[in-house]
Every structure is written in structure tokens, then in C-alpha cells.
Amino acid sequence: MNRKAKGSRNERKSKALLEDWGYKVCKSGGSLGEFDLIGIKKSGIMLVQCKTNRRPDNDELQRILDFEAPDNALKRVHVWIDREKNPAGIDEINMRRILDGESVEIKPVRSVEDNKRRNNNRRKAADKGKQKTKRQPKRIRSVPAKQSSKAKR
């Protein structure tokens, strides 16, 4: 698969992620600007730059940070690694850390289904911890009355 096709496929995957999170998404034609995807919903705007198998270089990160956007806009970079289910996400704070020369752990972005599955597993684990083991009721055995020594003979 050539580089352009792979990049387009990963942009579509990022678009699907944003749509799962409730954004209406526009893909910028030609992707010659700072961002490949623009997601809009009531609570804000998400601007996403997609990369495949590498993070953006420092010049590109600086251009992304310098881009003037509304206060309610979030700037993200999705880094897609081959054969991974979800992209690694870099937010504005980590972009600044990278530019300052700090080492940053880039964590994968979770899809809506992953979050639901994770929350359900946590809830189940918490419920198991809360459940008290039910004690079995004591069985009352009928004990035969002691026979007198006369009855045994």
C-alpha cells in the first residue's frame, strides 16, 4: 500500500473516532494546512493532524501550537502505527513538553466502545469486591434422643 493511501485510510479511521465521540467532522481537502480533520460539537471544536508511523517533527508541532484557534478548540495529533487498533494521541500539553526536550509517554486514544468496555470491567470488579459471601444457613440436624441403657439391652 502506498503512503498516500495509508494516510487517507488513517484519516478516515480518525474521522470515525471523532464521529463516535459525537463530533460532526470535516476533512480538509488536500491536507495542506496544519490540520487534516476539524470536528465540531456543542461543547467545542477538535482540530486533528493525522500521522502514520511517526510523530510530527518539531517545526510541525510548533506550527500546530501557533495556529490561532478559538478558546474552546482542542488541538490533537493522532499517530497511527501499523496494525494498531487505535492511534496514539498527542495533546497540546505534551506537544509543548516535546518541544522543550522532555521525554513524553504517548498514550493510545480510546474509542467509545473501549471506554464502555473498560468502565463495565471496572464496575464488575468493584461489584465483586462489594459482594459479601453469603453464609449458608446452619443445618439443624435432628439428633436422636439418647436411649436409656435399659432400651439398648
Question: Could you please describe the fold and organization of this structure?
Answer:
The chain has 5 helices and 6 strands. With 153 residues, the chain is an alpha+beta fold. The chain has a single domain (3-110), classed as 3-Layer(aba) Sandwich (Trna Endonuclease, Chain: A, domain 1), CATH 3.40.1350. It is elongated and about 100 Å long. The model has no long low-confidence stretch (mean pLDDT 81).
Summarize the structure.
By secondary structure, the protein is an alpha+beta fold. The chain has one domain (3-110): Trna Endonuclease, Chain: A, domain 1 (3-Layer(aba) Sandwich).
Report the CATH C-level class.
Alpha Beta
Number of strands: 6
**Share in helix:** 25-40%
Kindly state the mean pLDDT as a whole number? 81
**Beta-strand percentage range:** 15-25%
Trace the largest sheet across and list its strands.
1-2-3-4-5-6
How many domain regions? 1
| Overall SS class | alpha+beta
Number of helices: 5
Q: What is the fold-level CATH name, i.e. the topology?
A: Trna Endonuclease, Chain: A, domain 1
The SSE order reads: HEEEHEEHEHH
Q: What is the rounded distance between the termini?
A: 98 Å
Radius of gyration: 29 Å
Rough shape?
A: elongated
Largest sheet properties: 6 strands, mixed
Low-pLDDT residue spans: none
Would you identify the CATH architecture?
3-Layer(aba) Sandwich
